[in-house]
Amino acid sequence: MQMVNIHEAKTQFSRLVDAAAAGEEIVIAKAGVPTARLVAMEKEKVVRRFGGLKGKVRIAADFDAPLPDDVLAGFEGR
Question: Cβ(71)–Cβ(65) under 8 Å?
Answer without folding.
Answer: no
